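Anyone have tokens for RHS repeat protein? Sequence:
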Amino acid sequence: MSTSLFSNTPTVTVLDNRGLTVRDNAYYRHPDSPDVTSERITRHQYDARGFLTQSADPRLNEAGLVNFSFLTDLAGNVLRTHGVDNGITVALNDAAGRPFMTVSNIGTADDGTEDASQAMTRTWQYEGVSLPGRPVGITEQVSGEAARITERFVWAGNSPEEKALNLAGQCVSHYDTAGLMQTDSVALTGVPLSVTRRLLKDADNPDIVADWQGTDASVRNTLPGDGGFTTLTTTDATGAVLTTTDAQGNRQRVAYDVAGLLSGRWLTLKDGTEQVIVKSLTYSAAGQKLRGEHGNGVVTTYEYEPQTQRLVGIKTERPAGHAAGAKVLQDLRYEYDPVGNVLKISNDAEETRFWRNQKVVPENRYTCDSLYRLVSATGREMANAGRQGCNLPSATIPLPADSSAYTNYTRTYTYDSAGNLTQISHSAPATGNNYTTDITVSDRSNRGVLSTLTENPSGVDALFTAGGQQKQLQPGQNLVWTPRNELLKVTPVVRDGSTDDRESYRYDGGSQRCLKVSVQNTGSSTQTQRTLYLPGLELRTTVSGGKETESLEVITVGEAGCAQVRVLHWTAGRPAELTGDQTRYSYDNLTGSSGLELDGDGNIISMEEYYPYGGTAVLTARSQTGADYKTVRYSGKERDATGLYYYGYRYYQPWAGRWLGADPAGTADGLNLFRMVRNNPVSMKDNDGRVTEWLDLAYPHKSFNVVALMYKNNPMLKLYHRIFTQETKKILDEAEINESSLKKLKPNKRQKTSRDMKYTKTKLKNYAAHAGFLNVPSGSGETPRFKSGFVNLPGSLSNKNTFPGVRLIDEKIKRRFKDYSPEKLKESTKWRPETSLGYYRVENVDIFISEIKKLYAASGSELHEVVERRIRNHLASNNNILPRMAGIAGLHAEVQALNHIISMTDTEASVASKLSSSYIYTQRLVGARNEDFPACHNCSGIINGLENIMTGRVEGHTRLIRRKSI
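Reply: yep, here.
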């Protein structure tokens, strides 16, 4: 990879004099024209109080439009959001700050006025003032229709029977859009031990809508259908799950190692004997999987790059002595650029083939532009592959052995300046499989559809609902949505004078799918396929001509280490070609896509390879029937008969590389609400349809996934986080009490008295943050050490009283930064941020450090030499130029906590041991008080060793680290 493409293409954040981001500048280059650079500017505006009022991406900004506009109340709560992708939403809270009413799905008419014809009003009802104020109901009303109570909550009382089941104060009955979810008992740790799901009567009919009217529970309980599906759970004292028994009586058992990580898993089918699913799992010190062995005897090993800890190898094999014979089944090798973008994936278990004067190597290569968007991909596909659409290609049966099975392909991707994928060009010269897929994007939003639906940008918005949901999948295939913007029904085949084919879905109160029904007319009869989703279980039935022809239980094993495991248990209609109680192990790649599928004996059921944005490039199987029962494919998600992938909160259309609806999380993943994984599907992943995450382990795009894993595996961290939160609240409460007493004094007395008070509102503004740490010694005889009370030390960056050794950089911001565009920088000059207002330069490091030492001494501590060295290294790595918003490097509360950890004398542990067993917490004292406070740029650069920051790091620091690695 040539780094020149990325040279002098920084991400520039422009701040106003209030420290608010007003522009995000990015610089775009394409590998085909590396000498041409264009500037992409995203703009933001704020009101006089500093609250965001509008944001515009580069494309819409040039057209004089904005992506989002916001209206806030005096406290900064957003009251009205107008998004060009997802329409207008109004949200109001009550006096207690609880959701009271939202109005969503408000569109914009052609004349620019609001169109409320599809609007949905949702209101929350709560308990009376004599009770805790918990929600008791949610009412929804679509414009022009009657109001419905779509959810009701019933809370347990304080009776001895309820206490015996730990139900006191718990929500025991949740009537939702799917039916009733009932909690029968709860563990002391809060984990539900027994839950029962009951569906609505006639839940298969998509026209049936939940309406929990009335106050009589006995009447409401007649609305769900007869019977229910109960799932049982047992846990240990920490809340970790030990066993689960699904609604059909199948039992899963799990075991953990001393770090709380999964080490084994077993399954016992109802009336059967226990079988091993996960035989063993081993991990590195960082919690990364190193080796896993499953019940089929197959072993998977993981290899990581020592310098970055990125995953570079996944090898799955039958080891020596295996009953089916030793064989390497899959050997995936990964290569990255310095930033973490995947450049190459090869499968060394597959052989190189030759066909029609071409060499077909089992590898994929990827090229990105300077914005890290995938622009080119090469790989192999089946020689009989056709144009990608919503249908799967025919599998090669049996597993191929000749060289005519595969051919090379190249795909190129084109995007507009807002990140919309506008064209996919596919080329496979040896077979003539050449085609182009064009996507038409609206000229007023980021909504887009295949050009087969319309080629007119001004006509795209008419193909979406007011809330940003696509209304047609393919020409003639209509999509129907619920008022909550959940996909309700797809009509793949429309018939005149006869019943249409359809696939419909039903969701629970959390918008998670719990039922899928597919109805197809087959000549003179109708076939209905039904899937009910329950914890750890899928119940699949097929009815043809009024007679049940198949009944299948799919036991979905939970976390299974190196694979997804599903056990197929037929109670009726098992295909003759398949064995009963078939165990299927699906081995994932880096993005979670199911490639290699093995049976319980370690033999291959199927092998599948994917195009970068989804779609199947290679599909081979030992039988077509076996291949038909594979439902989990690209990105580890279920593929429906429509060709759509269900992610949890959204549906994805792989042939277009776009989501079917706008992001329900709003701008959490950027201003473009339809963009898939930031246009880098080989290096990023979306777990549930809301937020993108980097896949490389060195510098994850979000640190929260690592922190969440630590919290999950170490309950002590959760406990001390709660304790630390209480300590922060004590500081805030003390400041409130002191402030109240000061108000009673005369001004002169007030000023004198406040000097002796540690916490007042004025002092909190200077302290800004509160930090503490937990140190968990490795020795069994030592108790954990917890200390809090660290607050920021004073360090001025004002013009009148600048911190010693510092010079402010006060150059005026150029209107469009043209003087600093990449073309005007020398090739040898690496961009540094001194061209931006809002930075300072440490001109005399020794004087700077000396003053920091004085402040530490004044606070009763001594700056440790290790921390001093880290501060100096941080200055050097930033060319002594630091953002003013991050304050004086070394004075923040969390760095003081770090200093205290290293300076501890009540232990003989080494510095490395002290740090690796320490966890730092930081919370806000101003603004969103008592909330976790991510470490700033300076703190993230100083606290960069073995210690753990449990409250996160700022995203900008992560981005800077990535940029520096180029």
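The chain has a mean pLDDT of 88.
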